């Protein structure tokens, strides 16, 4: 696409310098809602989800389920969704729906349980590293699934009911853990997932599965034990709030020296983020309903941080945090240990005036799979540096949000393109920021 054609596509105009003030209610978690919709495919009863975020990934997941034959009622005003899948009418996932994000990988288990077959395309999603799905495939194979890869599709079959297995994940992958949990809930016998992930969104999914009748226990040492049951039933569940949205809006508040209350921000899901704020002398106040972020501190000191699996500092917070570190005093170091290629967006920050250097060496202590490889997975940021507005082309969801944050504290008006990345994972981010006083306009 030429620059001229691109400039006709929807974009945001963001003018920096306006302090954010007021209150926003957080949406439900993007990273939980899609998996819960998929989990509902395990039963022919109705499942109801409340506090759902209205965003692109949810709309795609709904379409996906409708292709299978689900009846879905989505109330966008009330943020509720009811889904009933009496029968699976089609077990093929089209590339147009399934190839756009990674969610269709999660449908293999439910489809195999309900009709013995599944055909899904290679997953899409953010290009932040190769993101293979080998843990998913190997785990499902251990449970008795026959899976072959052909012409861009995975062809999956379960000649007999899937059975329990002891599955040891090479790394605590979030979606592989969720995929195996969902599948094991209806498998014959006991499944043990070793080295499982335990993110809050996973615990929320387990809460929903338990309401449906699944027997899932978290053990010490990252083990999850699932006793498969014969059938699951309908349930109703209210989603936890989105901690990525919380972090982005909190950082926007600090960057603009504002004062914002985030209703439904949950301290227990944000502990490592809040600890990092304390280390940077940034103020916040927690109460029973949410968290107030107060951007009245002097310039905060530089820090070093490493992304890690939960309960560590989340990789999805790295990008907004990098923008914050461009405004901190001194040299900050970030070691990204989850994705090998998640710093590409920093070149745009450099164009805006940030001082950012990328390095292949592990600049941290967390044992990292990328040691002695050539991945640019460590980053040094020197600040503070004033930022100036520019044209920005969003490469992926969290990078996109960090561009908006950078534009909010830059001098002048930035044009931000590629906003479909934002809209797939944030509910009305522009509207929420505007309600807090930001100058952000969507040009359609
Ligand atoms: C929709 C959703 O919930 N997305 C989140 C989820 O992504 P997602 O679940 O895709 O991320 P994973 O936890 O699976 O990935 C972690 C690491 O494991 C590797 N890996 C994963 C699976 C596999 O089969 N083989 C393999 O090698 C990945 O390439 C990556 O290096 O967790 C990530 C890590 O917290 C977050 O950044 C994403 O926002
Ligand atoms: C990488 C992300 O999303 P996905 O896993 O859906 O690509 C994200 O939410 O930051």
Automatic annotation (TrEMBL):
Q: In which pathway does it act?
A: Cell wall biogenesis; peptidoglycan biosynthesis
Q: Which amino acid positions bind UDP-N-acetyl-alpha-D-glucosamine, per UniProt?
A: 102, 316, 338
Where, by residue number, does phosphoenolpyruvate bind?
Answer: 30-31
> Which InterPro entries does this chain map to?
Enolpyruvate_Tfrase_dom, Enolpyruvate_Tfrase_sf, MurA_subfamily, RNA3'P_cycl/enolpyr_Trfase_a/b, UDP_GlcNAc_COvinyl_MurA
- Which positions are catalytic residues? 126
Give one GO term, molecular function aspect.
UDP-N-acetylglucosamine 1-carboxyvinyltransferase activity
Regions that span the bilayer: none
* Top-level taxon in the UniProt lineage: Bacteria
In this chain the Enolpyruvate transferase domain maps to 14-429
As recorded in UniProt, its EC number(s) are 2.5.1.7
An example GO biological process term is: UDP-N-acetylgalactosamine biosynthetic process
Q: Where in the cell is it found?
A: Cytoplasm
Gene Ontology cellular component list: cytoplasm
Q: Which reaction does it catalyse?
A: phosphoenolpyruvate + UDP-N-acetyl-alpha-D-glucosamine = UDP-N-acetyl-3-O-(1-carboxyvinyl)-alpha-D-glucosamine + phosphate
Kindly give the Pfam families that the UniProt entry links to this protein: EPSP_synthase (PF00275)
Q: Which keywords does UniProt give here?
A: Cell cycle, Cell division, Cell shape, Cell wall biogenesis/degradation, Cytoplasm, Peptidoglycan synthesis, Transferase
User: Which HAMAP family does the entry mention?
Assistant: MurA
Entry similarity comment: Belongs to the EPSP synthase family. MurA subfamily.
Purpose of the protein: Cell wall formation. Adds enolpyruvyl to UDP-N-acetylglucosamine.
Task: State the protein's name.
Answer: UDP-N-acetylglucosamine 1-carboxyvinyltransferase
